[in-house]
Amino acid sequence: MTRAKPPSLLSTRYGLCAPTPGDLPATRSLQLYGEWAEGETDLLSGLITDGHHIVEVGGDFAAHTLWLARAVGETGVVHVVEPRRLPFQQLCANVALNQLGNVHAHHAWFGPGSGMRDLDGEAVRTATLDSLALPALHLLKVNLGNALVDALESAKATIDSYRPLVYSRLSGVDTAEAEVQALKSRGYRVWSHTPALYNPENHAGASRNVFPGILACNVVAAHTESGVDFDHLAEL
Amino acid sequence: METAPDGIAPAPSVALPPSLAPVKRHDERTVGAAAPARGYRDLAQGVAATSVAAVALTVALLAWRRHKRRRLAATPSPVSIAARFAEPVLPQGPAHGPAPAPPPGPEPLVPPEDPAMANPPAADWTYQRTAFEAPSVQLTLEPVDLLPRQRAAPLPRGLLERLHSPGETATLYLSGTRDHPTLRHVGLHRDDFAHWENVLREYLDAGGEEGHLARWLLPMLLCQRAPYVGRREAAAHIEEAIMLCDIALDDAGAGDGERPWWRAQQLRMQLARIARLSGATRLLALRDLGSDADDHDAPALDAWVDVHLAWSGWLMSVAARARLDIADDVCARLAVHDEPHAARRRAEVMMRRAALAKGEPRLALLDHAHSLRDAALAGGEDPATLLLFARCSHERATLLPPGDAAEACAFALAHAFAAGEHPAWRIESLELRLAIQLTHDALPGQAATGDVATLLRRELADARALFRTRTA
Predict the structure, then answer these.
(1) Which of A35, A46, A124, B119 is deepest in the core (most CB within 10 A)?
(2) Nearest Cβ partner of B319 from A43, A48, A67?
(3) CA distances in angstroms from B415 to A7, B354, B451, listed in the order given
(4) Which residues form the domain of A131?
């Protein structure tokens, strides 16, 4: 019996990644370009500095966690919450591969209350962000669809205390208005951020664009008392 | 026909010059005694004739002399200063013999002055350098000579002389000290660098001051050229610049005075590389630069202020302010070495803080920056510092009430004008002057005609027209 040669690791812009089967945009981008949604990290690079505490909802195979962990430095902390089992394991693999000691991975769904929640046929533990009892929170980054409103509900005390910046992918036309309203109702100003998925200056130097004309529909939100103003973005 | 009788000399009817006066000839026949009455009458006539002739001769002589004086006065002799430039004629004699005594001249007509009335002795003047003096590296190396003449033999040309060769468009300027000058590019074209790059590469392996200067300037030149070339070529330029700095840093020993300068140069080249990265990668590259805590010399601390200022420009809000706090700390350490320069850098930090603020806090920060002017200019009025405070004053003018704003505009204009005296800063000065003028003209109560702004626009267009056009 011959064993198939295991696929080699991916060398991405911010570290090594275990190869991930599937046809998700994130996995395709990591394989082809060695990066994923670089426009998001580009904007966030102006907001994050040493010692920041960050919560990421949705692991995206640690594509951004690798960068966030280095961006906050040794004194900062990154919490990543991934409710799906296999993506959670891939997230943990990539965190371990890159020896990111300041990253904490959580297998859970952030939502109000506690208990279990069915997610694509899997029972997932529900937890609140407040239950993490963070000493600080500078950025809440939501990568998963339909997760923003629940995450905000689960973090009332934390948001009231620290008023972090919120960066979130909108879930779709039907829910976008409700998601923006959920942010505004908590005293946030919201701006639209629509980076292209293809980066011509990608890490792999690939010129083939497999995401032609495709933009991510995201929002970035800052509390009205934070003084942060994104002059170059359209406010919603 | 009747003829005159013998023995009667004809009386001259006109005055004749003495040379033409009749003389008595010895062979003339005289009158005999047989006729005494006639002889007396002839004698009287002769005396009278002689008297008349003498008077006529005197009158003629006076008239001739008067005529001669008039001719002399009407045609004076030409005045010449040729004698003043004449080479002294060496005496023809033995080469080492004593100099011949000067010929005895006339006694001086003017009596010697009273010593009490003489001018007071001249003061003992000592030349002192001033802030208005152009740095030596900016001086024209050869005076303009419009007189065509052939040199006996061409002089050997040095590095600076070759860099400033006539015929090359002046788009690159040196300022600062002769050992560690700063390069400034004011053009828009990649070819602006070609001549300098060729010359500097020729001298790269040379010894002495010229080799050092070439090695110091080439990394700066490569970095400044990077924005005008393609991505790959730019990356190669910057990598070469960093490599040159690394080599120089390795060559400089631990106690070498050059080492802090090369460390500063290395930091600035790395910053140039980082500036071309995307935001997220840039952040990590900035972190990889290390910490300013490891550097203690003025040049390196100055470069660290550049790093923190640039870094803060890529950050937002709280993160940017935190980075400026770090820049302030570095300025405090720099002040130990060079207080005026540290004041200027602190003013830059303060202006960056002001850019992050609005309303009253912004004005307060600009006022703080403005208050550092005197301390910063104590080290000399270099154009960059003048422009910094001109810009600061202009920004204050946009926040002040009209009366104070007009005063701030005047202050800003004066500083911008002074900075524009240096050709390297002329265009930047004109741009700022135009902006200030427009701000001033828009103030309430200012009867602005726009004439000055129009002139400034024209002057700016003329200055820009001297550059090569941008390449595609």
Answers:
(1) A35
(2) A48
(3) 65, 20, 21
(4) 10-235
Contact check, Cβ <8 Å, B280/A67: yes
Whether residue A80 is contained in a domain is answered as yes
Looking at beta carbons, which residues of chain B come within 8 Å of A227? 317
Domain-embedded: residue A2: no
**Structural tokens at position B77:** 């002799």
The domain ranges of chain B are: 157-276, 291-380, 381-472
- Mode of pairing for the β-strands spanning A218-223 and A165-169: antiparallel
Residue of A nearest to B323 (CA): A49
Q: Is residue A5 part of a domain?
A: no
Distance from CA of A128 to the nearest CA of B (A): 27
Nearest-Cα distance to chain B for A16, in Å, is 15
Tokens read off for B414: 């004066």
- pLDDT value of position B19: 40
Question: Is A3 within the bounds of a domain?
Answer: no
CA A71 to chain B, closest CA, distance in angstroms equals: 6
Q: What domain count does chain A have?
A: 1
Q: Where are the alpha helices (DSSP H) in B252-382?
A: 259-275, 279-288, 298-313, 317-335, 339-356, 359-371, 373-377
Q: Find the chain A residues whose C-beta atoms sit closer than 8 A to any C-beta of B.
A: 13-14, 38, 41-50, 67, 70-71, 73, 199, 201, 222, 226-228, 230
Task: Please write the tens of the pLDDT for every residue from B416-440.
Answer: 999 998 888 899 999 999 999 999 9
Kind of pairing between the strands at A122-127 and A115-119: antiparallel
